[in-house]
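Milestone 3.1: sequence recovery, worked example.
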């Protein structure tokens, strides 16, 4: 079989079994023809040439492997060779993918003794065999090169913090390389009392990694350990562990499980600043009085950390109604509310009206002043912490 675009000629022995006979000094093998004496003519294009393959093996031949890319600067170790006959093995290395540019010279390995590849540490390597006719016939079955890539530190791509989320553990799977892969696939669930930290990381050596999570509050200089020896790329914790305030998370990734203590490397990355507020606001000076057919309500709302987000009220267990602050804009940690609401009709009101009519008074005003009504208010801060208060009029 003739091939392109490298001009190789193969002998097919059977399914998944072949011999790489030769590489022609042209890019495409285009045709074969029988030659006298059992030989074979091989025609090529680009460049156009004609070759004659003899019927018997040549006294000497060579084979060069493809250039192997270790992707990282590496030290080359022992070469494991399997074959037979008169075979010589050579290696060379370099730091560019073109062997003709600044590579080391071919270095011969003694297959009868130590087969250490005596080539400089580099990213790329190539091996070559020279086969000479003899008994038994020369044959190369396999060549295996051992190498040790230079250790590089893990790389953390991103650290994100989600307040009000809890990440669930991912089921463990038996995979040889559990460290590669970038982002965490841990599913998250809404949990307003939790804080979730998630990160993505990779290691160019495909080393196993462990992680540590630290935190630091605004105005602080020292990082405090939250959790170490994590193997997953996410961690959740109870928000009540940290007082209200602004914080930054830091994740440290280490390849210690794959290296001795002196060789292990680590890297770190910080999250964007985030805020925690788990303390609800409180309602101050809730006061309500009947004012004709209405109820006049006023109160204050105060939060120790974040602005008041909104306030609502309910009369006699009715639907919650939104109420604006006095300044109409909720942007402060302290807001005042002053509003009037119509007194709802009830059976007690009707009874009071009938009683008032019998006595000759204004039934509607008398009902408003004597009927009992429950006013409940609730306020939320920016982090949806809520508190409520109630008052009763007409007792």
């Amino acid at each position: 079989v003739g091939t392109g675009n490298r001009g190789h000629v193969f002998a097919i022995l059977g399914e998944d079994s072949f011999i790489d006979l030769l590489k022609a000094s042209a890019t495409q093998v285009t045709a074969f023809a029988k030659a006298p004496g059992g030989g074979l003519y091989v025609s090529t294009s680009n460049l156009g040439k004609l070759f004659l393959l003899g019927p018997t093996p040549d006294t000497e031949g060579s084979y060069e492997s493809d250039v192997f890319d270790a992707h990282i600067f590496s030290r080359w170790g022992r070469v494991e060779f399997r074959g037979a006959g008169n075979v010589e093995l050579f290696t060379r290395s370099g730091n560019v993918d073109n062997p003709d540019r600044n590579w080391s010279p071919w270095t011969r390995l003694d297959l009868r003794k130590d087969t250490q590849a005596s080539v400089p540490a580099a990213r790329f390597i190539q091996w070559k065999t020279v086969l000479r006719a003899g008994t038994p016939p020369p044959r190369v079955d396999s060549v295996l090169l051992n190498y040790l890539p230079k250790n590089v530190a893990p790389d953390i791509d991103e650290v994100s913090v989600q307040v009000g989320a809890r990440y669930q553990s991912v089921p463990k799977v038996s995979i040889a390389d559990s460290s590669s892969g970038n982002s965490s696939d841990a599913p998250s669930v809404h949990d307003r009392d939790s804080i979730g930290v998630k990160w993505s990381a990779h290691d160019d050596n495909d080393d196993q990694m462990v992680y540590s999570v630290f935190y630091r509050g605004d105005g602080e200089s020292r990082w405090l350990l939250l959790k170490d020896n994590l193997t997953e790329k996410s961690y959740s914790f109870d928000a009540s562990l940290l007082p209200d305030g602004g914080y930054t998370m830091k994740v440290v990734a280490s390849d210690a499980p794959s290296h001795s203590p002196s060789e292990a490397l680590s890297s770190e990355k910080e999250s964007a600043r985030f805020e925690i507020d788990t303390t609800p606001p409180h309602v101050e000076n809730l006061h309500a009085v009947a004012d004709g057919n209405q109820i006049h309500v006023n109160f204050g709302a105060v939060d120790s950390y974040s602005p008041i987000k909104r306030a609502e009220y309910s009369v006699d267990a009715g639907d919650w109604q939104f109420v604006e602050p006095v300044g109409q804009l909720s942007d402060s940690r302290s807001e005042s509310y002053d509003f009037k609401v119509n007194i709802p009709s009830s059976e007690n009101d009707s009874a009071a009206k009938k009683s008032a009519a019998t006595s000759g008074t204004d039934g509607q005003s008398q009902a408003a002043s004597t009927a009992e009504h429950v006013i409940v208010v609730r306020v939320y801060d920016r982090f949806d912490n809520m508190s409520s208060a109630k008052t009763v009029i007409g007792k």
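DSSP finds two helices and 26 strands in the chain. The longest strand covers residues 68-84.
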